[in-house]
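Query structure, 950 tokens:
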């Protein structure tokens, strides 16, 4: 009893902690609704299993023959069983009932959506039912029939065992003798089971429109003309056999039902398996394109509806491939916003320049956002300076980790399209205290992606602060302290709650420490995605949350989706595979195979107090409407979103990746062409990875103007190449998909163009190079190779940034920043060069602005964002910090820095390289040889100088 009480107390403390957490967050309704639903379903499941099983056993026992003759073996069975009879007759139903209750309670979401179901307003083309029938009702009905079948089958087995044990069923050689009472009970129970199987088979016919076949998802020709009629026939046959069992219970003859069962088995083989095979093999396979056309068209139409791509605007695009002078004049605003700072590359620069202390950190992959600065929209690369308690080293005590170091500090933003003269990011918001163009905002980050598992904050008014706020710097290296004043977690204002959380986190310090007072709060579950997932368990959050400064506070913006795999005729896609690319690693999702997705909710998580706000972004989504009936107070209308928040929400990347995975084939809307796979596309592999990579190139956010748009807008884009493999693969562009990701800036009102998909389709005879082909050209070009070899001198690595594809100049422009990084441990990448390509022409210069001018005949007609950088300034190699992460840099030495002599040699080498290429173009071999000799001599001097420096 003591052990049971201890276990019960631990369970209670866990549940009570959940109540405190949800109550503080304001989502207690979510927890209590789940608990009530689970409890009610457990009771229903327990009773629905235990009562019929108990009644069946009791009836079999009470109607047993009083004077039955037993053989010796049965006598021994009864001797063993009789002392346990009462326990078994009650224990078996109870145990089975518990298992059934647990199983049914886990289907609380299915039950609640059935009770609160919302019609879709559209019908399926096969049966004419509302699509909501397949999403909400059919799965529920099938689960009920499956549960009832399990109850009846277990009852039948236990009835047979009980009757055999007590002599109601006797086997004498080949003769089986069954008493009247046993016959009636077994026959009725078997009849119920066959009747349920008939219902199950009847429901199975409707499931054909959501099942995945060899050709499409949904009922194809064979399903419609053989499988569905066959299941209807078998369902009726099962019901007839069930009636035969009922007749047997009355007249006592087993021949009819047994023959009926045998015929049912044979019929299931002939009608359910053989006949569909014959239809497929001899009717469909010889003429599939004709016979399957109607059903393929259903699949195309409903798949495009389910993934929100039905309204994608397809634009034929005759891409120009000749770089003419002034070609970019009409795209000046787009070229000015081309991002040069790769968020996957420049994180070390943030770490070295803005980390300041070892207990701060930045993520390896930064985020992108945009802000209005001086009346213009500026694309930015952003990250919060989050806490890293493991950086404390020996000082990582419980007190420091959970009482003193409680939060990160500040949001750092760099211009996406600019660089300093040395190749560093141009910071728009930086420093401690935080200063910059983003204005005044609450900089403290108590809730972040890498926050500690828990922190204890808060103190009575007038108490000296103990939380580290930020290091003030200066000669005395002073620190400022603060006290959390928000409402971010459950209060530890009494002994019991201290004990609850001491047990939850297995730390007696929570209970014993004098730093825990009546004003203390405990902050935990601090990852923004996890907070959204717990606040709305029916939603699937996007894999990436990004920070923004909104209305004077740092908030995490999280997109969330409603999903189903029961949308009729819609192609099923593995979400984990579709969203995986070089930026997002494959991940395990609780709901993976889906065929319907909507970005139904935009969520925010306040970085200071952790408050979660859910906004209904797609209030027409029937699944969201259904869940709003279940949890009526948790989701706010979009009308409550501020204009500042609207400027930062965007079209989500995971939804876009799902759509591009589908559009690779479903951009083809003709059934015949779809069947022949005449124009199937796929997403290119990441061009900067090795040739054997399986990672896909991710989509990118850029401010650009697509054909069909009047002005540039914040967009998300991806490219397509032909779907092929091995030697047949061709890395040429076939499609360019972009979506308007700008939601506008009006309070509670989405911009009209938001979510508009535009698909540029390139002619098959127009061999515009794809990303992989362009990257190969960059890597193999002799001029580029020699320039890169120069950059690699002095113990440096060259890093190719993201390869961007921008529709400008009537064609497609490729832009790739090139970073140089010293091999030292504390170095960071510097943007030194930019590669550009248009058609078959490429250019490689110090700035994007200069590269565009060179590429387009000396004058592109537009300026890039780095046009203020002096291309004649002495080049720099990456610097190394002092290892403390305080943003300072040490004087460079012979391996990482450059003397004046080295700078002059680099300029000379660049001039000789250009002279060599010009001579080669003119066919002047004498000048070519002279320039080559001078280049070799210059490189030798550089190597000698480098060796001397070492």
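Result returned for the query:
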């Amino acid at each position: 009893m003591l052990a049971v009480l201890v276990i019960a107390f631990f369970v209670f403390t866990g549940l009570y902690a959940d109540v405190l957490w949800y109550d503080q967050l304001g989502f207690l309704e979510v927890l209590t609704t789940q608990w009530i639903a689970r409890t009610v379903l457990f009771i229903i499941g327990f009773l629905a299993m235990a009562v019929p099983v108990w009644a069946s056993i009791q009836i079999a026992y009470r109607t047993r023959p009083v004077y039955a003759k037993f053989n010796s073996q049965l006598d021994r069975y009864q001797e063993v069983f009789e002392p346990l009879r009462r326990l078994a007759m009650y224990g078996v139903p109870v145990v089975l009932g518990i298992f059934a209750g647990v199983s049914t309670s886990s289907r609380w979401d299915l039950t609640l959506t059935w009770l609160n179901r919302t019609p879709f307003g559209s019908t399926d083309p096969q049966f004419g039912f509302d699509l909501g029938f397949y999403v909400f009702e059919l799965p529920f009905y099938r689960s009920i029939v499956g549960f009832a079948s399990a109850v009846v089958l277990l009852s039948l087995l236990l009835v047979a065992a009980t009757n055999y044990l007590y002599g109601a069923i006797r086997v004498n050689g080949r003769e089986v003798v069954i008493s009247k009472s046993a016959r009636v009970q077994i026959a009725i129970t078997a009849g119920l089971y066959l009747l349920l199987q008939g219902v199950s088979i009847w429901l199975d016919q409707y499931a054909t429109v959501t099942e995945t076949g060899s050709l499409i998802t949904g009922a194809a020709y064979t399903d419609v003309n053989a499988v569905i009629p066959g299941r209807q026939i078998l369902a009726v046959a099962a019901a007839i056999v069930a009636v035969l069992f009922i007749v047997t219970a009355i007249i006592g003859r087993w021949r009819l039902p047994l023959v009926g069962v045998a015929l049912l088995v044979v019929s299931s083989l002939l009608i359910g398996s053989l006949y569909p095979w014959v239809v497929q093999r001899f009717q469909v396979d010889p003429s599939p394109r004709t016979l399957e056309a109607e059903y393929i068209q259903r699949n195309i139409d409903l798949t495009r509806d389910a993934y929100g791509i039905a309204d994608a605007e397809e634009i034929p695009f005759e891409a120009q491939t000749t770089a003419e002078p002034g070609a970019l004049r009409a795209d000046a605003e787009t070229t000015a916003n081309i991002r040069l700072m790769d968020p996957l590359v420049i994180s070390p620069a943030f770490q070295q320049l803005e980390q300041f202390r070892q207990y701060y950190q930045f993520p390896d992959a930064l985020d992108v956002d945009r802000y209005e600065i001086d009346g213009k929209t500026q694309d930015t690369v952003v990250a919060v300076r989050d806490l890293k308690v493991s950086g404390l080293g020996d000082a990582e005590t419980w007190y420091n980790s959970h009482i003193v170091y409680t939060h990160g500090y500040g949001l750092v933003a760099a211009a996406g399209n600019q660089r300093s003269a040395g190749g560093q990011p141009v910071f728009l918001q930086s420093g401690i205290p935080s200063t910059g163009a983003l204005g005044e905002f609450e900089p403290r980050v108590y809730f972040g992606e890498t926050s500690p598992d828990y922190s204890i904050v808060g103190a009575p008014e007038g108490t000296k602060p103990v939380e580290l706020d930020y290091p003030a710097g200066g000669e005395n290296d002073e620190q400022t302290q603060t006290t959390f004043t928000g409402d971010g977690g459950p209060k530890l204002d009494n002994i019991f709650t201290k004990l609850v959380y001491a047990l939850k986190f297995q730390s007696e310090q929570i209970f014993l420490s004098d730093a825990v007072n009546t004003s203390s709060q405990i902050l935990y579950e601090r990852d923004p995605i996890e907070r959204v997932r717990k606040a709305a368990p029916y939603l699937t959050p996007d894999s990436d949350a990004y920070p923004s400064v909104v209305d004077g506070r740092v908030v995490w913006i999280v997109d969330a989706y409603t999903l189903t795999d029961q949308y009729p005729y819609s192609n099923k896609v593995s979400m984990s595979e579709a969203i995986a690319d070089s930026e997002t690693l494959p991940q395990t999702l609780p709901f993976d195979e889906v065929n319907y997705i909507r970005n139904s909710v935009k969520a925010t998580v306040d970085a200071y107090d952790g408050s979660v706000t859910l906004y209904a972004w797609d209030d027409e989504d029937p699944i969201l409407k259904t869940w709003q009936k279940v949890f009526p107070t948790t989701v706010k209308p979009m009308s409550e979103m501020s204009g500042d928040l609207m400027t930062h929400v965007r079209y989500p990347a995971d939804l876009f990746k799902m759509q591009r995975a589908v559009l690779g084939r479903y951009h083809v809307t003709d059934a015949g062409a779809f069947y022949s796979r005449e124009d199937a596309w796929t997403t290119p592999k990441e061009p900067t990875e090795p040739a054997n990579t399986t990672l896909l190139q991710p989509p990118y956010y850029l401010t650009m103007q697509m054909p069909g748009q009047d002005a540039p807008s914040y967009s998300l884009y991806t490219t397509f190449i032909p779907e092929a493999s091995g030697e047949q693969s061709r890395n040429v562009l076939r499609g360019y998909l972009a979506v308007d990701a700008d939601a506008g800036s009006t309070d509670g009102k989405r911009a009209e163009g938001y979510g508009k998909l535009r698909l540029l389709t390139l002619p098959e005879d127009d061999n515009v190079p794809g990303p992989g082909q362009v990257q190969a050209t960059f890597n193999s070009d002799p001029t580029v190779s020699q320039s890169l070899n120069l950059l690699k001198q002095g113990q440096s690595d060259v890093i190719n940034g993201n390869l961007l594809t921008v529709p400008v100049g009537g064609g497609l422009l490729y832009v790739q920043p090139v970073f140089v990084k010293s091999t030292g441990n504390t170095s960071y990448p510097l943007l030194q060069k930019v590669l550009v390509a248009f058609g078959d022409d490429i250019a490689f210069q110090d700035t994007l602005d200069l590269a565009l001018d060179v590429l387009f005949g000396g004058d592109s007609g537009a300026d890039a964002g780095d046009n203020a950088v002096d291309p004649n300034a002495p080049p720099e190699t990456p610097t190394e910090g002092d290892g403390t992460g305080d943003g300072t840099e040490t004087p460079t030495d012979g391996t990482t820095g450059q003397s004046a002599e080295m700078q002059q040699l680099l300029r000379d080498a660049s001039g000789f390289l250009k002279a060599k290429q010009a001579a080669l173009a003119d066919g002047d071999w004498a000048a070519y040889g002279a320039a080559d000799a001078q280049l070799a001599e210059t490189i030798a001097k550089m190597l000698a100088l480098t060796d001397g420096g070492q």
